[in-house]
């Protein structure tokens, strides 16, 4: 790498960190709930980050940047009045700068968004994925801090196509409650609107690597099939459904505990698969979940298993004849880019690991830029702000390129 490129990248990070540390030096409107998202100048504001982000996306320096805004002495973030917040959220959203075209509005999507902390990161995700013709169900863990729940409630009230789930679950990591949270949102989505084609689940620490138009085109290429990446369970995953697990809910440490009791065999002679908790499901498949005895019985059987969201969707989607099923699929779909600790020799996380998943730092931007997945997981805006700043710049650039290409055809 050329010395000049490294110096440029380091200088860019310094510039970006100054903007976060001293938000008053920015020009233009402030971001809803606190700092503005980017300096303003003519044209789409996020595109003004070109000189900062292009070197980082090429992998030229910046890997060590970290600023823990949540640490001691971090400045408090003011909460705006609801009306002001909604106006500023709308002006900062991707849809205000790149209105949806006919191809997108003819293929509306629904989203299940589960979250329990870090409102600023969740808001950054929402700004990128919001479209007026899509539908959004938020599931907020009732154990979340009150201020977090209040801010999500304020966000939800800004839009008629965004709502809170009618029944929230106290989520335990790897417990049945995580699966039930999605099921609850799906029931509400079915009742809310009959136009959406697919439902996609997200967590509050995801971020898109594709525009909404690119996501639509990706899903259309599967011609009405569900995307539930997975395979027959490897050795380490077999005990998850072979033994009974108990969920223990407590204020200090909620957890799932394995017992020595063997599970009964799966209902209806179903073969249990193992896969991703992430999915893109057709509306027909979601209706099947609430109407078909096999789906209902498997849901009941899964209540005392470990991490049932990693077997439920993929198992049902392998049944021939089920709406949108893919009986012979494996890891198809490109739904999520995740850096797993130790999965690939020599692969480095430039942020830090939580439960063996990389929380992306700025040094991971080059890896993320090369990924072909719809979304990436996980991010923390308060620790690595330039990572999300530059991914926002990247997705705006992709949208501009798509728009330019469309105009020339």
Compact overview of the structure:
By secondary structure, this protein is an alpha/beta fold.
Q: Return the structural class.
A: alpha/beta
- Run of helices and strands: HHHHHEHEHEHEEHEHEEEEHHHEEEHEH
Sketch the major β-sheet. Answer: 5 strands, mixed
User: Could you state the oligomeric state of the chains shown?
Assistant: single chain
- CATH level-3 fold name of the domain at 80-333: Spore Coat Polysaccharide Biosynthesis Protein SpsA, Chain A
Please give the radius of gyration in angstroms.
22 Å
Total beta strands: 14
Shape: globular
Number of separate helices: 15
CATH architecture label name of the domain at 80-333 = Alpha-Beta Complex
Mean pLDDT: 87
Q: In what range is the share of β-strand residues?
A: 5-15%
Low-confidence stretches: 1-12, 17-43, 70-76
| First-residue to last-residue Cα separation | 38 Å
CATH class placement of the domain at 80-333: Alpha Beta
- If strands are numbered along the chain, what order do they take across the biggest sheet? 3-2-1-4-10
Helix content: 25-40%
């Amino acid at each position: 790498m050329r010395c000049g490129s490294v110096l440029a990248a380091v200088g860019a990070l310094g510039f970006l960190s100054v903007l976060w540390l001293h938000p008053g030096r920015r020009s233009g409107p402030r971001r809803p709930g606190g700092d503005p998202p980017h300096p303003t100048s003519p044209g789409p504001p996020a595109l003004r980050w070109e000189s900062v982000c292009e070197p980082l996306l090429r992998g030229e320096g910046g890997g060590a940047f970290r600023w823990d805004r949540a640490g001691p002495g971090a400045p408090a973030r003011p909460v705006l009045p609801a009306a002001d917040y909604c106006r500023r959220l709308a002006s900062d959203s991707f849809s205000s700068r790149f209105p949806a075209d006919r191809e997108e509005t003819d293929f509306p999507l629904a989203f299940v968004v589960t979250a329990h902390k870090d409102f600023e990161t969740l808001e950054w995700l929402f700004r990128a994925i919001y479209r007026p013709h899509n539908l959004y169900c938020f599931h907020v863990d009732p154990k979340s801090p009150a201020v977090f729940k209040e801010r999500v409630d304020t966000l939800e009230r800004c839009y008629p196509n965004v709502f809170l789930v009618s029944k929230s679950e106290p989520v335990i990591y790897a417990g049945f409650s995580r699966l039930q949270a999605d099921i609850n949102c799906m029931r509400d989505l079915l009742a809310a609107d009959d136009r959406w084609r697919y439902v996609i689940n997200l967590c509050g620490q995801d971020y898109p690597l594709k525009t909404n138009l690119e996501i639509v085109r990706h899903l259309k290429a599967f011609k009405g099939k569900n995307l539930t990446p997975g395979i027959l369970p490897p050795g380490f995953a077999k005990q998850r459904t072979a033994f009974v697990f108990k969920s223990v809910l407590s204020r200090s440490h909620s957890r799932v505990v394995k017992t020595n009791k063997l599970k009964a065999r799966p209902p209806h002679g179903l073969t249990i698969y193992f896969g991703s908790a992430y999915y893109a499901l057709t509306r027909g498949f979601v209706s099947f979940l609430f109407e078909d005895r096999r789906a209902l019985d498997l849901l009941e059987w899964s209540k005392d298993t470990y991490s049932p969201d990693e077997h439920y969707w993929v198992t049902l989607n392998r049944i021939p004849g089920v709406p949108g099923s893919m009986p012979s699929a494996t890891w198809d779909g490109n739904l999520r880019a995740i850096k797993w600790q130790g999965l690939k020799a020599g692969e480095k996380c430039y942020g830090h690991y939580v439960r063996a998943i990389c929380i992306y730092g700025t040094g991971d931007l080059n890896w993320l830029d090369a990924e072909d997945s719809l979304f990436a997981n996980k991010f923390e805006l308060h620790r690595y702000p330039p990572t999300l700043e530059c991914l926002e710049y990247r997705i705006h650039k992709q949208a501009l390129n798509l728009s330019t290409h469309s105009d020339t055809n």
